[in-house]
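ok trying again, last paste got cut off:
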Amino acid sequence: MNVWQRSIQWQLILSMGAAILVSVLIVIGIYSQVANQQAERYLVEEALPARVQAVRNDIERVLTEPLTAAGAIAGNSLVADWLASGEDPARQEAFVRYLNSTQEQNQALTTFIVALDSGNYFTGKGLDRTLTRTPDNAWFYDFIDSGKQRSLDIDIDDTTQTPTLFINQRITSAGKTLGVGGLGLSLKAMSDLIRSFRFGEAGRVYLVSPDGQVKIHPEAAVSDKSSLSQLVGIEAAQKLMSEPSR
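nice, full thing came through this time. structure:
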């Protein structure tokens, strides 16, 4: 075999080898792309929703007792009768003791009864203040006007100046709204719970209000000081906020 024939042979071998190598690389590329797509689909459609649901279940577990306690205050027929009859001063001390006992039993920051007619705001320490329709008391009158039976709101407690989750429950009798009862729960337990959740290396869990405000964030400095759009961008925030609750 002369040099020219050997050269052609080597060229054929190299060409075939290159073709096989290119084919292998193409197959590997397609396989990697498909694998990445499947992994991404699994994370987005299965793993992430399952993780979020687990967070939601734990939050609901933390809130079960406070929600029950708030419902018990608002659903107490003695409280409703007292408000309906004009808040007899002679019975006020008994209801103050009741609020104080409920606060201690649930390790709450505060418990309260607010009368609609008078605006009197009672806590476990007595008559705290009298509400009127001013911006400072919008939470109360907005809730009354909304027709909702219950609301959960995060705000700064006027007395303790502590970030607090307020559970507000409507007090009614014979279809008439008499006021609001409920309690304020420290956000520490919920903040610690949310801070402990991670998804992968960078995934975090936020508690966001319907208006897009980040109420609880793993970093305390961010809580109630930033919006979701500031953290993840306007487009991503709009998409997240438009997703229905599950």
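cool. Helices lie at 3-74, 77-84, 89-105, 138-146, 188-196, 228-232, 234-242. Residues 3-74 form the longest helix (72 residues).
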